[in-house]
Amino acid sequence: MRILFFGRGVISTQYAWAFEQAGHIVEFYVRKGRKETFGSHIALEMWDARRGKQFIQESWKINLHEEISPNYDLIIASVNTEQLPEAARILSTTAGNNPILIFNNIWQDLKSSILPLSMNNVVFGFPGAGGGIEDNRLRGGFLKMIFLEKPRAGTEQINKKVKELFESAHFKINGIKDMQSWLWNHYAMNAAMETEVLKRGSFPALLNHRDSFANVGKSMREMKPVLKARGAKMDAITLLLTKIPSALLGLLFNKVIFAKGSLPRLFIEYNNSTSSFAVLEVVREAKKLGIPLPRLTLALENTEQHTAIKNG
Q1: Burial letters for 200-227: b for 16+ Cβ neighbours within 10 Å, e otherwise?
Q2: How does 154-171 read in b/e, with b if 16+ C-beta sit within 10 Å?
Q3: pTM for this model (two decimals)
Q4: Angular region, 52: left φ>0, alpha ψ -120 to 50, beta rest
């Protein structure tokens, strides 16, 4: 297949590398001026967990474009949540009938999140990867599992194409029946993590405080009424974070899920982002619903976003 990735972010770059290794043609769309800034190569230092745990270290040649042509088998958009509306707008005027995989976190309802794109031309998924890029060096990794919505009426062929692509590169697909609820739950968890990032100063700093993940659980409990008010079904992760006592939850995350040397822990250590957008979005929604979120609101204080919340 000929695949176009929208943006050259940490998720796009890692999966593009894996697809190229599987024999596919991969290219990237970047904003005007970025092609020269990014250059023709990127340094990769990442973990590949599809077959055991392999460390990849190489200077990888990439093919960048500042225009989008309608000549691809699939376009994959994996962008920061706040960038999705602009990405959808650009793709609506340039992608033609190319099928599109939206491969990232979403807090809005799925249909409105991709306007003016048609739901019949889009499928939704979520990566099993993480890390960060700094000075044209990517540090991160990806797991064997990715998440993909089960086919909706009208998207069967696109869904099949996406599934075949990932399976050709030896990824395992976890099919999600209710992708809307799944993404809302995951977004809330991300907001709970970002609440601690605002408090600690960075994602890696979470790992240096034994109570960080206990606090993540407390923030999830605070957001549970918001999820219920939106009609989301609580998934296993949300139930775990909201039912287990905070002290036990902290121990579980620190000693098991994010144990030293584990790939999930490394993904956090490599994450150099500082965005609080997920916290902002959840607090805005809670304000509309009349649901107090004191932990999240407090985390936003002394940030530019706090002013936006207070003013409406």
Answers
A1: bebbbebbeeeebbbbbbbbbbbbbebb
A2: ebeebbeebbebbeebeb
A3: 0.94
A4: left
Specify the pLDDT at position 49: 97
Cis bond before residue 116 (omega within 30° of 0)? yes
Low-confidence ranges of the chain (pLDDT < 50): 306
Phi and psi based region of residue 292 (left: phi greater than 0; alpha: psi -120 to 50; beta: remaining): beta
Predicted local confidence at residue 240, as pLDDT: 85
Specify the pLDDT at position 311. Answer: 52
Please tell me the predicted confidence (pLDDT) of residue 308.
53
Q: Which of 185, 114, 125, 113 is nearest to 151 (CA)?
A: 125
Beta strand spans in the chain (E): 2-6, 25-29, 41-48, 54-61, 64-65, 74-77, 100-103, 122-126, 129-134, 137-142, 145-149, 172-176
Q: What is the model's pLDDT at position 42?
A: 98
User: Which of the 8 DSSP states describes residue 81?
Assistant: G
